[in-house]
Amino acid sequence: MMSKVLIGREKEVSILKNLLTTGEAELVSVIGRRRVGKTFLVQSVYSERIAFEITGIQHAKNSEQLENFVVALSLQSKSPLPLQKPKTWLEAFHLLILYLESSFGQEKKVVFFDELPWLDTRRSGFLNAFGFFWNSWAVKKNIIVVICGSAASWMIQKVVHNKGGLYNRITKRLHLQPFSLRETELYLQNRGLNLNRYQITELYMAMGGIPHYLKEIQKGESVAQSIDRICFAKGGTLYDEFEQLYPSLFEHAESHMAIVRALAAKPSGLSRLEIAQTSGISNGGGLTKTLEELQHSGFIAEYLPFGRVKKESLFRLSDEYSLFYLKFIETLKKEGAGIWQSFHASPAFHAWSGYAFESICLKHVPEIKKALGISGVFATASAFYRKGSEGMDGCQIDLLIDRDDKVINLCEIKWANSEYILSKAYAADLRKKVALFKHYSKTKKQVFLTFISTYGVLENEHSQGVVDRELGLGELFGG
């Protein structure tokens, strides 16, 4: 049987382990999108210290959540007799305190509430009772209370920014991100899958770095075969995941899905006003709340284009699976298994792969900075876009890195299945792009053209004097 090993997460593991040594009560929130590995992280680090653990039940009534609580308490306390179900959460937490008091020893204990938003059903009084548990008892003990939830916006609004008994009580916040490319590689290797980096990146473009999705990959399959089976075959894990994903995290998920659909149609990004117009959602407080919820949950990201002010920021769909679903799975899954392998060489695939690879590069700016040797230099990453006017062409830059050492890296990003060959015409276009950027931005900084592709650039007479630095997949994987 394959052993479960915690991959990556070095920073989070270090933080969680250090909390065992503080000698104080700690209230830790772990936030991250569904399937990203929050539960596995907590259980892996604290496996020997968890005194009590409960997982909320999705869509359950309060009476069912209380029954779930008493069953968990009976099992973990090893009570010879079944405990009577409490009538309220205050009563439930009183039972928990009695159990924890009886089990305390020298070692710091951990209490783990998983999927906390599901425990807090409407008018249940759960959060008030939880606040009472923390303020009246736990805060005085050598204990770690971990609260975890996939509904990141709920966790932030109801707990982190709580105005009542939990106000300012969180002592440590962890926001768990999907795997990077390197972590994805390590995860697959741990499962005995030795895919090359091109195939791993193609897989990442369709599924992102979500461990629950990646565990579906099987030995002996190409990535195209795996995607066919997982995404397009009826019963595949990602065949209808999109329709379940958003309603499981958000109330009134129709608005969230409408925004995601709008952004999927314009991968380069939309302004807030454009989102309102495209999605049909009124440009008011409701839109603000929905955008914040999608950002907190890791589905969309806000980018400020170079030289623009905050109100001119753009939103992009940053969840790889959602984009892949809306571009391909939703329309092609009726064709059944095998469709992706035949569709793999189509113009639509090449258009999508360009946007998807660009999105991956935006998520791996730290690796790009490391490859450029500027990890220690403060720098901001952004995009650049100017519309053309009469007599002057427009200019669009996929990614630029504005550095404090008076240099700007203009990054040209291309997905290819071999070394990228610059033609005479394309080289001329790149020179023109650099000149247009200098004209529009009025920058006095040194401008370097950095070409990021899967296998780098084939050096020829056209690349010389145009490309200042080239990066490939090796650099995006961290070396």
From TrEMBL:
**Pfam families membership:** ATPase_2 (PF01637)
Cross-referenced InterPro entries: ATPase_dom (IPR011579), P-loop_NTPase (IPR027417)
Please list which residues make up the signal peptide: none
Residue span(s) of domain ATPase: 8-216
Give this protein's Gene Ontology molecular function annotations: ATP binding
Q: Which PANTHER family match?
A: ATPASE (PTHR34704)
Q: What is this protein called in UniProt?
A: ATPase
